[in-house]
Specification:
271 residues, alpha+beta, Putative xylanase fold, 39% helix, globular
Length: 271
């Protein structure tokens, strides 16, 4: 009788553990269990495509005090790319764990991987790119593809503080002003919108494309993954207009041409 009792306690205990998994833990497990692929780019695409249909949600990272938010249920364009990259890097581990994903996510999202208030988050995608390159996670291949140099005054956040409720202290504002000055002094490379057609054949499955902004003071408007179909590049992204993660029905170049405030693109690639 005692053995039988122990058996059922064990069964119910295991069941309770399974039931106790959060939706994000379940999403993590599902992503990690996707079939093994030969390259990080293919892994990124598998993960990204498995999230098609998931809802678009903005401002999912905003909380006080600042802490690491792991949300695999809904995305904006930035958190979609960030989550795909973090999970792709996690999948390369021998025994990938949720803690590995959290580690990579923090290393991608926060300056030098350290959480120290709202201002420690990499709000500008240009800075995010710089840190991802420094960490060896991604390569910016825009220049080698033939991109053109650009230097832009970046000050959107400090000039539009009402859009960012967390920018309420002098320390936060000062730190962001210093970040903006550093980015403004940076020369980087982009593919101009009116020349993008000449570069489509150079894009690869699983590339990350970031669309540069024509708005004053802003670096990028939007990000997504490249999917190649029948020789044409398409965009897998968390769409603001469609309110979900989807693959565009029109080629990436058509999408780019339709968006007035996109004036070019930057291309990132997994090693």
């Amino acid at each position: 009788m005692r053995k039988t009792t122990y058996f059922w306690l064990f069964v119910f205990g295991c069941f309770a553990k399974i039931q106790a998994q959060t939706p994000d833990e379940q999403a993590f497990e599902a992503a990690i269990k996707l079939p093994h692929t030969a390259t990080k780019a293919q892994t990124a695409l598998q993960i990204g495509r498995s999230w098609e249909g998931k809802p678009y949600a903005a401002h999912t990272l905003e909380q006080t005090p600042e802490a690491l938010v792991c949300n695999l249920q809904a995305f904006d364009c930035y958190t979609f790319i960030e989550s795909v990259v973090a999970l792709t890097l996690t999948a390369t581990r021998t025994k990938p764990q949720l803690a590995d994903y959290q580690h990579f996510l923090q290393k991608l999202r926060y300056r030098n991987g350290r959480i120290n208030g709202y201002e420690s988050r990499l709000h500008y995608f240009l800075e995010w790119i710089q840190q991802a390159k420094q960490n060896g996670y991604l390569r910016d291949v825009t220049r080698e593809l033939g991109g053109k140099p650009v230097q832009k005054n970046i000050d959107f956040m400090t000039k539009h503080q009402l859009l960012y409720p967390a920018m309420t202290t002098a320390k936060t504002t000062q730190t962001m002003a210093e970040v903006e000055q550093k980015l403004s002094n940076t020369i980087w490379y982009y593919i101009p919108k009116n020349e993008a057609k000449s570069y489509e054949y150079k894009l690869q499955d699983g590339d990350i494309v970031a669309f540069t902004s024509g708005k004053a003071g802003l670096d990028f408007n939007h990000e997504g993954l490249v999917v190649i179909k029948k020789g044409r590049a398409y965009l897998l992204h968390a769409s603001t207009n469609h309110r979900r993660v989807l693959l565009t029905t029109e080629p990436l170049l058509v999408y780019l041409a339709q968006i007035k405030h996109h004036n070019g693109m930057v291309v990132l690639r997994f090693d």
